[in-house]
Amino acid sequence: MAAKGFAAPDVLQAFSKARILCEKLGDQNELFVALCGEASYHMISGNLLAADELGRQCLELARASGDPALLLEAHHRQWATKFFMGDYAAAQRHTEHGIATYDPDRHHQLTYIYTGHDPGVCCRYFSAMMLWLRGYSDQALVRCEEAMALADRVSHPFSMALAQLHCSYVHLFRREPDEVRRRVDKWIALSKEFGLSPTMVADGRFQLGWALAEEGHAAEGVREMREAIAAIAATGTAIGRQYLLCVLARACGESGEASEGLSLLERALGIARSGAKYQFPELLRAKGDLLLRLNPHDDAAESWLRQALMAARDEGTKSLELRAALSLARLYRAHQREREARDVLAPIYAWFTEGFATRDLVQAKDLLDQLR
């Protein structure tokens, strides 16, 4: 039940009461703590607009205080919220502040006051995910290793498990099921050893389900992912749910359940319309690909894929732009529109300077070679 997790209604009520009391007393430090807690609640619950507004207030208080530690924590609050809103430029600015100013000897103590995990570790694994989105797949792995090394240095179990979890998502983005399994095994072991959040274990089940589907066991993988999403939802956690639904929808398509995949995507798109734009181009691309699975001549599919391409370009998410272009190029080639296929795929492929061993870039090169 949701009441067992951080995102329980009584937790929000407690933060709200604390904030109101601190405002009356004029206690700025305690007010900052209450605002951070309330913002965290809203972010985890998926209410990103409320989280963003409270995070903005945290930044104002921190800047007025002149306290570098409070300012670091205020940026901490915002890099996660902005990331899940799909505002990657803002999220990057906040993580850059974290990476530049965090000192483990001075700032690890913030772990025990605010979020329960280390801000220096957190800004690095969020930075890693954004590096992948922006098209720097190999640099993302380097940043993952930095996050893991810092987590080991501060020796904080929850921070170590979170670093493994988020770095495994980088491997999921890179479509590396073996690496996902390796990371998941480590963080589930940590979660069980130290009695960490049940959401962590459910997230592990989701990623293992994805790995199963990638390895050709689509039906088993879909079942694992469905059960994992239900377990995460039962804790009251909603953040990033639209992406999980998108991954599940694509796996449904692979297992011959494209109609069910489209139904899941409608749920995901509904979440995105509320302001949760994380991985939004992938939702649009999945819609186009699933429509083609149902009907290879569906005229609407091209429109969805073009929307995905434009959305990725607007965001500056080069890895998602490559995927959208690859889907469009495959569609054009299937309809003997080979010049259009090359025109849409060649420019984005030429942009990349690293990650050429990843499956997306390998597949893009193979298709371009066939289009010569």
Structure characterization notes:
This protein has 372 residues and is mainly alpha-helical. Helices cover 79% and strands 0% of the residues. It has 19 helices and no strands. The longest helix is centred in the first third of the chain and has 18 residues, at 28-45. The chain is globular and about 65 Å long. Mean pLDDT is 91; it is low at 1-6.
Describe the secondary-structure layout.
Layout: H1 9-25, H2 28-45, H3 48-65, H4 68-85, H5 88-101, H6 104-107, H7 119-133, H8 137-154, H9 157-173, H10 177-194, H11 198-214, H12 218-234, H13 241-254, H14 258-272, H15 280-294, H16 299-315, H17 318-334, H18 338-351, H19 359-370
Q: Which band does the percent of strand residues land in? A: under 5%
Low-confidence stretches: 1-6
Question: N- to C-terminal separation?
Answer: 56 Å
Mean pLDDT: 91
Spell the H/E element sequence.
HHHHHHHHHHHHHHHHHHH
User: What's the story with the biggest beta sheet?
Assistant: none
- The outline comes out as globular
Helix content: over 70%
- What radius of gyration results from the CA coordinates? 21 Å
The count of β-strands is: 0
Structural class given helices, strands, pairing? mainly alpha
Q: Helix count, per DSSP?
A: 19
Describe this structure in a few short sentences:
79% of the residues lie in helices and 0% in strands. With 372 residues, it is mainly alpha-helical.
Question: Which terms summarize this structure?
Answer:
mainly alpha; 19 helices; 0% strand; 79% helix; disordered N terminus; 372 residues
